[in-house]
Specification:
Elements lengths: L1 H18 L2 H23 L4 H20 L2 H5 L1 H16 L7 H10 L7 H28 L2 H30 L12
Helix pairs in contact: 1-2, 1-8, 2-3, 5-7, 7-8
């Protein structure tokens, strides 16, 4: 359900573009992301850092793009976000006790994923590479193709790349995951 909610602002952006133009689409996604943050806060009393970062970039880059009448500024948003995540994941390899991917997956999977430390590091580097490649792909499409193609790439291309990457990651994890540690007798 959360994935669907996270996906709605992008769908609203694309529909607004198809029905009107890029300026309208930018305004729509700025409003949609702001509402998403507010509704998430109202329901959960917390908002993820990822959602906050994405919403802040949408609002700031969208406002700048509309103010200077240059949609290219807004087109940088996926790249800036992906490269920022890549940098965070890379730095986590050297700062803290666990790489970022391990922190995220352990919080979501609740101990279901058990890897050797070197495999957590490899997985983290895979995510760094993915973030770099997807950011670069966004720039390539933004600078070399029409606005309409970029809008469709934002919806279908980046989402498709992410889904393929996550499926490949799941296969990799299934081959690398260690058996779960048995519960101690005191817990039974």
């Amino acid at each position: 359900m959360q994935l669907l909610i996270d996906f709605l602002p992008i769908v609203a952006f694309v529909i607004a573009y198809w029905l009107a133009d890029i300026k309208t689409a930018i305004a729509v996604i700025m409003l949609a992301m702001t509402l998403q943050v507010l509704i998430t806060w109202a329901v959960k009393r917390t908002v993820s850092k990822m959602l906050l970062a994405s919403a802040a970039l949408v609002v700031v880059l969208g406002a700048v793009s509309l103010a200077i009448d240059n949609d290219l500024v807004f087109k940088w948003k996926p790249t800036v976000l992906n490269w920022a995540f890549g940098a965070v994941f890379l730095v986590s390899r050297y700062a803290g006790t666990k790489p970022m991917v391990q922190r995220l997956l352990e919080s979501v999977a609740k101990g279901e994923i058990n890897l050797l430390p070197r495999d957590w590091q490899r997985l983290n580097l895979m995510w760094v590479a993915f973030f770099l490649v997807s950011g670069a792909a966004n720039l390539f499409v933004a600078y070399n193709f029409s606005e309409g193609i970029w809008v469709n790439f934002k919806l279908f291309g980046l989402l498709g790349m992410t889904l393929v990457f996550v499926m490949l990651q799941a296969l990799w994890l299934s081959r690398r995951s260690l058996p779960a540690e048995p519960d101690s007798p005191a817990e039974n």
